[in-house]
From TrEMBL:
The organism of origin for this protein: Serendipita indica (strain DSM 11827) (Root endophyte fungus)
Keywords: ATP-binding, Helicase, Hydrolase, Nucleotide-binding
Annotated ranges, domain DNA2/NAM7 helicase-like C-terminal: 1250-1447
GO molecular function, one term: ATP binding
Name this polypeptide is given: DNA2/NAM7 helicase-like C-terminal domain-containing protein
Top-rank taxon, per record: Eukaryota
Pfam family, one: AAA_19
Length: 1485
C-alpha cells in the first residue's frame, strides 16, 4: 500500500508528540514496514497483556449473550458495516419503563479501510485526500436502541489493559468514530431506520476491584469521553495540522530526542542525528514543556542575533549563557521565562570563573564528558556503613493494582564495611574493604527476606544504613507491594514478635510484624495513608510537644509512654522526662539532635529509599542523548578498565533483563518475532545490576570528593534504619489525620530546604540604607534591589523572615542550617525562651542570619545612579531580632521565609487528646463519631422535639400575620422556603449542612443567624438549661464578623417589633472571642445563653481554659476549613450537641501541599464539608428534597438554599448547572443603559480601547434587543434564562465572553502574552469604571503574574503600591483586616487572584482566562480549567461577568482531557461559552 498512517500511528503520536515520527511513518519506504522490526520483550508483554484482557472481556460479553463476532479476516465495506449494525439492532428489545438497563450488543472483529475523509479535509481548508489512513480495527462497536423511534445508536469502544485512560486511547477511539461517521454520512439514507453516533466514545479498562471469583467486578463499566470535547481538537489535528506536517520537507519537521522516544522504531537514526547536529536532545530527559521553553529562549536570542541561526542548538545556548550582556537583557525583559530557563539548563555562577555563568548540562553536551552540577543535595547520603541495593523486575503482564502487587522477581544486595565499627563515632577510610551479598527471589519472599535482613543489620547498633533502587518505577513497585501486603494482612498486635526469627527458610509466611518492620523501614510519603501504618516523620521531632507542659493529664502521659513502648510508671514529671528522653533518643538516631554541641545534624531529610537515577542526574550532567538508563550511565561514568578489574560485568538494559525473566527455564528468548538470542540468567543480570549501581554510587561520590566538595554538596550522612510508627492514636482515622498534618509540615520544610540548598534564587535582594527610630523601636531601612516584597497586612510581628548577606560564594548557604522546627511555633521576641532556642542554633546560623519582621514596604524617591534625578524605589522597613550581627551600609542582603506554623502542635495535641478520651477514658467523642459514621451521627439524639416543632409553627404564623399587617421588621424575620427547611433541620436534628451556593449571598449567613435565634426562641425559658453555649466559627475573620453582625442586626429587629414576647432575648449574650487565653470565663448558671464567635484557634484556647462544652457548633464557610482544623472546635461539642455547617464544596477547597489518597469510605483529607458532601469515590450525605413541603422535609442532612440574592436570573441559571437543585433568583439584571450612553458618546483612538468599547457597546445593544452594527457579537447558542424567543423589551446579557486571537507575535514570550491580555482587561475596566463609578468591579486572575500585569495596566503607581501592600499575606488570620482595608479606589475596584476573591462579590467581574502562549499552555491548562476555580470566578458577579478566553483554552488538545477534573472544568467553560454573548478581539503582541 502507498503512504498512509495507521490508527496506531495516530495514537502513538499522542504518546510521543513527535511530528517526525508521523512524517517518517507516513513517508517510509514500503520495504521498511514496522512488522519487519523485532518486538522487544517489554513491548511483547504489554501486547500479550492487552490480548489477554481483550479475550477475557469478550468471553464475559459472550456469557452475557451480548457478543456478536464478525469474520476476523474480512475487510468490511461501509454498507456491510451498516448491515451488521442493523442486524445487531434487530436482536434488541426496547427497554420497558421498569427496566434499569438497556439491551445492547457488542460487535467485535470489525475491520475496514479508513475513508478518504474528503468532506472533512475540505471543511478544514486542506486539499482533498491530503493524508491517507490505513485499516481500522475498533475492538467493539456497541449497538443500542435510541430514545427516538427507529434510531439505532452506535458507540466505539476499545479494550485497553492500562490502569488509566490515556490521550492515545482517546485519539484512537475518536479516530474510529470519525471513520464510521464519515462512512455512514456517505451512504444513501435508509428509510425507516436511522443510525446515530453516540455522544461518547469509551475505553474498557480492567476494573481495579478484581477478586478471585468476581467476574462482574473485573468487567465494570467502560470509561467514556464526550465526543463534544474530543472530536473538535482531534479533527483539527487530523484534517488541518497533519497535512501541513506531512507535506513539509523532512529537515523542516520539528523534533527532539527525549524520554518518550524509548521504544520508537526510529530511535537509532534520531540518536545519531542528534549527536551529529548537536540538537537539543543532547540534554537528556528534557520534558516537552522544558524543550519548548528552551526553543522559545533560542528564538528570542536568534531574533536579536541573526548570526546565531547558523549554529547548532547547543552552541546557541552555550553562547547565550556565556554572554552576560544577553543574559542581562533577557532577565530584564522576560524575568519568569529566564528564571525557568536557568532552572532547566542548570545555569549558575561558578566562583572559579569570575562573573561568567555556567551550565553543566550544556558543557556535558559540548565536551561529551560528565560534569559536576555542583548542586547541593540532602537526599543523597555522603556515606553509610551498610548499603542495600534492590533491583526489581516489574511484571508488565500484571495489573499494578493486583492484590499482590506487580513485582515479578527481585534481587537484594547488601554491602557493608567488612570490619564495621559502628556507634563509636569512628569512620572507616574510603578504601575500606566491602563485602557484597546477594539474595534473589520470588515476590512472595520479599518481605520475609528483607525483614530478616533488617533484623540482622539491627544487631549492629548505630549502623548507618541506606536503601537504594535505580528507578522510581522500582521504588513504586516496592512501596506498592508493601502497601498491598499491609492492606491484606491481619492487624498488627503491638508487641507481636517478628515471624522472621521463628520462620523456617523457604516459607512464604508474612507476619504483620514483618510487614510493619519493612514498611516502617522502606516507606514514606502520602501513599501510606491508605494503610493502617504511618511511620514517624522527621524522627518523631514533630511530637516534641508531648513532653512540654500542656493539657495532657497524668493518665494521658502514661498512655503516651505505653504506646511508645516505654514504662508508664512514675509521677507526671517523671513521665514527661521519659517522653523527652525518648524524643531526644529518636532525634539523635535520626540525625536531628538539637543543641549546639551535637556532632551532626541531618539537613533536609533522606528518603527511606534513595532513587539513584534521580540523584545522579541532579549531581552529574551526563553526556547521554535523549534519556538515561543505568547501562548508559555506567557507560559514561565508569572506566572500562576499572570495571574489568572489579569484575562488575555488563549491565543489561531493563528490556533484556525482563526478557530473560520471561524466558526463565528456556534457552531462547520467546520474542514475538522469533528472536534468536540465547537467554541470560535473570538472577545473574540483577546481581550485576546491583553491582553496577554500587559502582555508579562510588563513582559519583569520588568525583565530588576529588573536587573537594563532599561536605558542601552531599549534606547528609545515612542514619540507622528507623522503622518506628506513629502509634499514639488508636483510632485509625485520627492517626491518619495526625500523619497528614505532620506530612504537610514536612513538605513545606522540603520546599524551604530545596530553595535554600540552591542559594535562595527566588529571594528578593535588598541593599541596606540606614537605621531609623520609630518611637522606642529601631527600624532598618533597605532598598529593594530585585524581586517583589509584599508588606504584611497586620502589624503583628511574626519575625518570619531570614535576612542573610548575599555574597555569592560557593559555600553552603547559612539558611540551610537554620533549624525551623525549634522556632516555628513562636513569635520571635527577645525573651528568655526564644534566646535559649536561638542559642541552640548552629554557629553559622547565629553568625550570619538575622531574624526579621517586615514592618512595611513603601515607595520612596531615591536618587538615580548618576545622581541627576530621582526615581521611585520600593523600600523595605524591617524590624530585626537582635543577634549581634551588624548590618553594613550599601551591602546586599537576601531575605527568605522561615517556617511559621503556630497551629500544628495544637491540632496534633487535640487529635491525641480526643483519642485518649475515647480509648482510655471511654468517653464519647463527637468528632470521632462524626468521622467514623456521619449518617449515624446525624441520627443521634439531640435537644428539641415535637413541642418545639409546634411552637416554631406558631412563631412563623405569628410573624406572617405581622408581616401582612405591615409591621416593620416582621418580614425580615421570615425565612424563605429553602431557608426555612434548613432552619427546621437545624432545630430538630443533630447534624445539618446548609449548602449555600455561591458565596454568602444565597442568604446563608442570614439563615444561620436567624435559625440560631429561632432555636433559642422555641426553647424560650428553657434555653439557658438546654443550650447555654453556642460556638460560631469560620475560616476568616470577615466571615465571623458577618455572622456576628447578622445576629446583632436580627436581635435589633426582634426588639423593634412591639407587642411581641422578646423576653427570651434577654438571656442571649453574644461575645466575640479575640484572645482565647484571656477572654473572660462565662458563669454558666446565670440564666444566660452565650454565643461565642471566634477563629477555631481562639475558640479552642478559650474552651480549653474555660472547660466548656458547646450545645451548638456553627461553622460558616466550612468548605474552606480543613477537617483537622475544624476538629479544634468540634472537639468541644457536647454528647447531644448540634453541629451546623454551611458552605459550598463546589468552590475552592483548602490548599494542601501534598496529594493524598482518598480512603475508601470517607474523604478525610479535605475540608470538613468534603467529608460530608462526598468525594471521588463516595457520594455524600442525602440532600433534602426541595419541592416536598411535607413533614419529612428535614429528614435529609444537606439542605440546599435555593434563593439566590447575588446572581441575577441569567447568571444563576448558568451557575446552577453544577448544583443539585435550581436557584430561585431574587433579583433581575440591572440596566446597562448608562453604559450604552457613555460608550456611544466616547471613542478612543487606541485600538484595544476601541475594541473593548465596541464589544461593550454590542452587549448593551443586545440587551435592548437592538441589532449591533458596531461589533460582530455572537448570540448565545443556548437560550438565556429570559428566553431569546421572547420579544421582551430587554434581554439578559449577564454572561459575556471575549475570544482573543493573537495576530502578531504568537511566538513571543509568555510575559508579552500576559501583558497583551492585561491591556484588554484594563480597557474593559476603564469603560466600566467611567460609566458606573458607583459600582464594584473585580478582575479575578487565576495567576499572580496576571494580577501583577493587570495592576500595571490599570492602576496608577500609588494604587499599585496600595494593592501590593494589602495583598501580601496569605495568613488567614489577616484576611479580615485585609478585606476591610482593600478599597483600591472609591468605586471598589479589586484586582486579585480568584482564591482571594472567594467569599466576596462585585457588580462586574472580568475574568482573564486566555492563555495564548502556546509553548506553556499544556502546563497551565489543568489549573485554568479547575471547575471550582471557574465557578468561584464567574459567580462573584452580580450583574455582568466577562470571561476573556481563547481557542487555545476553549478547544485544548486531547492530552488535557485524560484528567477528569480538567474535563469537568472544560465542560463548564464550554457551557459558559454556549450561553454567553461572545465576540472575537485580536491582540497584537
Ligand atoms: S525517536 Fe523520538 S524523535 Fe525520533 S521519530 Fe521517534 S519519537 Fe520522534
Amino acid at each position: 500500500m502507498s503512504s498512509h498512517l495507521s490508527p496506531t500511528n495516530v495514537a502513538t503520536f499522542y504518546h510521543n508528540q513527535c511530528d517526525l515520527y508521523l512524517h517518517k511513518s507516513y513517508h517510509r519506504p514500503p520495504s521498511s514496514s514496522p512488522r519487519a522490526q523485532a518486538v522487544s520483550p517489554l513491548a511483547a508483554a504489554h501486547y500479550k497483556r492487552g490480548l489477554q484482557w481483550e479475550a477475557y472481556l469478550f468471553r464475559e460479553l459472550q456469557r452475557r449473550k451480548q457478543f456478536i463476532p464478525l469474520r476476523k479476516t474480512h475487510l468490511y465495506k461501509p454498507k456491510e458495516i451498516r448491515d451488521a449494525l442493523l442486524d445487531a439492532a434487530a436482536q434488541l428489545r426496547p427497554r420497558t419503563s421498569d427496566e434499569e438497563e438497556e439491551d445492547v450488543r457488542y460487535i467485535a472483529y470489525l475491520s475496514f479501510q479508513s475513508p478518504d475523509f474528503a468532506r472533512e479535509f475540505a471543511q478544514h481548508g486542506s486539499p482533498p485526500r491530503s493524508v491517507a489512513f490505513g485499516v481500522a480495527k475498533p475492538d467493539l462497536v456497541k449497538v443500542s436502541l435510541g430514545d427516538q423511534k427507529d434510531t439505532i445508536v452506535w458507540e466505539i469502544i476499545d479494550a485497553k489493559s492500562s490502569t488509566a485512560v490515556k490521550s492515545s486511547h482517546n485519539a484512537q477511539t475518536g479516530f474510529y468514530h470519525l471513520c464510521l461517521r464519515s462512512m455512514f454520512e456517505d451512504l444513501p439514507h435508509l428509510s425507516g431506520k436511522k443510525l446515530v453516533p453516540s455522544d461518547k466514545v469509551s475505553i474498557w479498562l480492567p476494573s481495579r476491584e478484581t477478586d478471585e471469583a468476581g467476574i462482574e467486578d473485573r468487567v465494570s463499566l467502560p470509561s467514556s469521553m464526550p465526543t463534544s470535547l474530543l472530536l473538535q481538537p482531534l479533527s483539527t489535528f487530523l484534517f488541518k495540522k497533519l497535512p501541513v506536517i506531512l507535506s513539509k520537507p523532512r529537515d523542516q519537521v520539528e523534533w527532539y530526542l527525549n524520554p518518550s522516544c524509548q521504544g520508537c522504531e526510529f530511535l537509532d537514526a534520531c540518536r545519531d542525528k542528534t549527536r551529529q547536529e548537536k540538537r537539543l536532545g543532547m540534554i537528556p530527559n528534557l520534558s516537552g514543556s522544558d524543550a519548548r521553553l528552551l526553543r522559545e529562549v533560542m528564538d528570542i536570542v536568534q531574533r536579536q542575533n541573526p548570526d546565531w541561526n547558523a549554529v547548532t542548538d547547543i552552541e546557541a545556548l552555550d553562547s547565550l549563557i556565556k554572554s552576560p550582556d544577553m543574559m542581562r537583557k533577557l532577565e530584564v525583559a522576560y524575568a519568569p521565562t529566564t528564571k525557568k530557563f536557568k532552572r532547566i539548563a542548570g545555569v549558575h555562577r561558578f566562583s572559579g570563573r569570575g562573573p561568567e555563568l555556567f551550565s553543566p548540562l550544556i558543557d556535558a553536551a559540548l565536551t561529551q564528558k560528565p560534569q559536576l552540577t555542583r548542586r547541593r543535595v540532602f537526599s543523597f547520603p555522603r556515606n553509610e556503613d551498610v548499603a542495600i541495593f534492590i533491583s526489581v523486575i516489574i511484571d508488565i503482564s500484571k495489573d499494578p493494582n493486583a492484590s499482590d502487587g506487580n513485582i515479578g522477581a527481585f534481587c537484594v544486595s547488601v554491602v557493608r564495611l567488612s570490619t564495621a565499627d559502628h556507634g563509636t563515632g569512628r569512620r572507616k577510610s574510603a578504601g575500606a574493604p566491602m563485602v557484597m551479598a546477594h539474595v534473589t527471589g520470588h515476590p512472595k519472599e520479599f518481605i520475609r527476606l528483607v525483614a530478616s535482613l533488617l533484623v540482622d543489620i539491627g544487631k549492629t547498633p548505630g549502623a548507618r544504613t541506606q536503601v537504594y533502587t535505580y528507578s522510581l518505577a522500582e521504588r513504586n513497585a516496592i512501596v506498592n507491594h508493601l502497601i498491598h501486603a499491609a492492606l491484606s494482612s491481619p492487624p498488627y498486635i503491638p508487641g507481636e514478635s517478628l515471624a522472621t526469627e521463628g520462620t523456617s527458610q523457604g516459607s512464604f509466611e508474612e507476619s504483620p510484624g514483618d510487614i510493619r518492620l519493612v514498611l516502617g523501614a522502606l516507606c514514606d510519603g502520602a501513599a501510606l495513608l491508605v494503610t493502617a501504618y504511618q511511620p514517624q516523620l522527621l524522627s518523631g521531632v514533630l511530637l516534641s510537644f508531648l513532653s512540654k507542659k500542656n493539657t495532657l493529664s497524668k493518665a494521658h502521659l502514661e498512655t503516651c509512654c505505653r504506646r511508645l513502648g516505654l514504662s508508664g510508671e512514675g509521677t507526671t514529671e517523671v513521665l514527661r522526662k521519659r517522653l523527652e528522653q525518648e524524643q531526644w533518643r529518636l532525634a539523635e538516631i535520626g540525625g536531628r539532635g538539637i543543641g549546639a554541641g551535637v556532632a551532626r545534624r541531618e539537613v533536609g531529610q533522606l528518603s527511606k529509599i534513595v532513587v539513584l537515577k534521580k540523584e545522579v542526574e541532579r549531581l552529574i550532567a551526563l553526556p547521554v542523548e535523549g534519556f538515561i538508563d543505568l547501562p548508559s550511565t555506567a557507560q559514561v561514568l565508569l572506566d572500562p578498565s576499572d570495571r574489568r578489574k572489579s569484575s562488575i560485568g555488563q549491565c543489561e538494559p531493563d528490556d533484556v533483563i525482563f526478557g530473560a525473566w520471561m524466558a526463565r527455564g528456556k534457552k531462547r528468548f520467546p520474542g514475538i518475532s522469533g528472536d534468536e538470542k540465547p537467554v541470560i540468567k535473570w538472577e545473574d543480570a540483577l546481581k550485576t545490576r546491583n553491582r553496577v549501581m554500587r559502582a555508579v554510587l562510588d563513582n559519583v561520590r569520588k568525583r565530588i570528593s576529588d573536587a573537594g566538595l563532599s561536605e558542601q554538596i552531599l549534606l547528609n550522612e545515612a542514619k540507622p534504619i528507623e522503622s518506628g510508627m506513629l502509634d499514639l492514636c488508636e483510632s485509625d482515622k485520627l492517626r491518619r489525620l495526625m500523619y497528614m498534618t505532620q506530612f504537610e509540615v514536612v513538605l513545606r520544610l522540603q520546599e524551604l530546604w530545596q530553595e535554600r540548598l540552591d542559594g535562595c534564587p527566588n529571594a528578593p535582594i535588598l541593599r541596606y540604607v540606614r537605621a531609623e527610630k520609630r518611637g522606642t523601636l529601631w527600624l532598618q531601612i533597605f532598598d529593594v534591589v530585585s524581586g517583589v516584597l509584599e508588606a504584611p497586612v497586620e502589624e503583628r510581628p511574626f519575625y518570619d523572615w531570614l535576612l542573610v548577606p548575599d555574597d555569592a560564594g560557593d559555600g553552603v548557604p547559612p539558611e540551610v542550617h537554620f533549624d525551623d522546627l525549634s522556632l516555628c511555633s513562636v513569635v520571635v521576641r527577645p525573651n528568655k525562651f526564644v534566646r535559649s532556642r536561638w542559642d541552640e542554633q548552629q554557629p553559622v546560623v547565629k553568625q550570619s542570619i538575622t531574624i526579621s519582621n517586615i514592618v512595611d514596604v513603601r515607595m520612596e524617591k531615591t536618587p538615580t545612579e548618576d545622581g541627576r534625578s530621582h526615581k521611585l524605589c520600593s523600600q523595605a522597613v524591617l524590624e530585626t531580632y537582635y543577634t549581634g550581627n551588624h548590618l553594613t551600609k550599601g551591602a546586599l542582603y537576601r531575605i527568605s521565609p522561615r517556617l511559621v506554623n503556630f497551629n500544628f502542635e495544637k491540632i496534633l495535641l487535640n487529635l491525641i487528646t480526643m483519642d485518649f478520651q475515647h480509648t482510655v477514658a471511654n468517653n464519647p467523642v463527637p468528632f470521632i463519631d462524626l468521622i467514623d459514621n456521619p449518617e449515624a451521627f446525624a441520627q443521634s439524639p439531640t435537644f428539641c422535639g415535637e413541642l418545639e416543632e409546634r411552637k416554631e409553627k406558631e412563631i412563623v404564623r405569628g410573624l406572617n400575620e405581622l408581616a401582612k399587617l405591615g409591621v416593620e421588621h416582621a418580614s425580615s424575620l421570615i425565612l424563605k422556603a429553602s431557608q426555612h427547611r434548613a432552619a427546621k433541620r437545624m432545630m430538630m436534628k443533630r447534624l445539618s449542612v446548609v449548602w449555600g451556593p455561591p458565596g454568602e449571598c444565597t442568604g446563608k449567613t442570614y439563615t444561620l443567624a436567624l435559625s440560631t435565634l429561632r432555636i433559642l426562641e422555641v426553647l424560650g425559658r428553657r434555653a439557658p438549661d438546654q443550650c447555654p453555649v453556642i460556638l460560631v466559627t469560620a475560616m476568616t475573620h470577615a466571615a465571623i464578623e458577618a455572622i456576628v453582625g447578622k445576629i446583632e442586626s436580627l436581635i435589633g429587629k426582634y426588639l423593634a417589633i412591639k407587642d411581641r414576647d422578646s423576653l427570651w432575648l434577654n438571656s442571649v449574650d453574644l461575645q466575640r472571642v479575640r484572645q482565647g487565653k484571656t477572654h473572660p470565663h462565662p458563669v454558666l448558671d446565670n440564666n444566660k445563653v452565650y454565643i461565642f464567635a471566634g477563629t477555631t484557634y481562639q475558640l479552642y484556647r478559650f474552651c480549653e481554659k474555660a472547660k466548656l462544652r458547646a450545645n451548638v457548633v456553627i461553622i460558616d464557610e466550612a468548605g474552606q476549613l480543613p477537617l483537622e482544623t475544624a476538629a479544634l472546635v468540634i472537639r468541644w461539642l457536647s454528647s447531644t450537641g448540634k453541629l451546623i455547617l454551611a458552605g459550598d464544596h463546589e468552590q475552592l477547597a483548602p490548599i494542601f501541599i501534598g496529594t493524598y489518597p482518598e480512603p475508601e469510605d470517607l474523604p478525610l483529607f479535605g475540608s470538613v464539608l468534603d467529608l460530608l458532601m462526598g468525594g471521588r469515590k463516595r457520594t455524600g450525605l442525602a440532600i433534602a428534597a426541595t419541592e416536598d413541603e411535607s413533614q419529612h422535609l428535614y429528614d435529609a442532612p444537606v439542605v440546599q438554599l435555593l434563593e439566590n440574592f447575588r446572581l441575577n436570573e441569567d447568571l444563576g441559571t448558568f451557575v446552577q448547572i453544577i448544583y443539585a437543585k435550581k436557584f430561585i433568583p431574587q433579583k433581575s439584571q440591572d440596566d446597562l443603559g448608562d453604559l450604552r450612553l457613555w460608550l456611544e458618546s466616547n471613542k478612543s483612538t487606541n485600538r484595544i480601547m476601541e475594541d473593548a468599547r465596541l464589544f461593550l457597546l454590542g452587549l448593551t445593544e443586545a440587551m435592548s434587543n437592538k441589532k449591533s452594527h458596531s461589533f460582530k457579537l455572537m448570540r448565545p447558542q443556548l437560550p438565556t434564562s429570559s428566553g431569546l424567543e421572547k420579544q421582551a423589551q430587554s434581554q439578559a446579557v449577564s454572561l459575556a465572553l471575549i475570544r482573543v486571537r493573537v495576530t502578531k507575535g504568537s511566538l513571543s514570550p509568555y510575559e508579552e502574552h500576559v501583558s497583551a491580555e492585561a491591556k484588554l482587561v484594563a480597557a474593559l475596566v476603564h469603560w466600566l469604571r467611567e460609566a458606573f463609578p458607583e459600582d464594584s468591579i473585580f478582575v479575578a486572575c487565576p495567576h499572580r503574574i496576571q494580577r501583577s500585569a493587570a495592576r500595571q495596566a490599570i492602576l496608577s503607581p500609588q494604587e499599585i503600591e496600595t494593592a501590593e501592600r494589602v495583598a501580601g499575606d496569605e495568613n488567614v488570620d489577616n484576611l479580615a483586616a485585609e478585606l476591610a482595608a482593600f478599597h483600591l479606589s472609591e468605586n471598589g475596584l479589586r484586582i486579585d487572584t480568584v482564591e482571594r476573591l472567594q467569599g466576596s462579590e462585585a457588580s462586574f467581574v472580568i475574568f482573564p482566562l486566555s492563555h495564548t502562549h502556546q509553548p506553556s499552555l499544556s502546563s497551565h491548562l489543568g489549573f485554568l480549567l479547575s471547575r471550582r476555580r471557574l465557578n468561584v470566578g464567574i459567580s462573584r458577579a452580580k450583574n455582568l461577568c466577562i470571561v476573556i478566553s481563547s481557542n487555545q483554552v476553549l478547544q485544548p488538545s486531547l492530552e488535557v482531557l485524560t484528567s477528569e477534573e480538567t474535563r469537568k472544568g472544560l465542560e463548564f467553560l464550554r457551557a459558559y461559552e454556549a450561553r454567553s454573548w461572545s465576540g472575537d478581539i485580536s491582540l497584537e503582541i
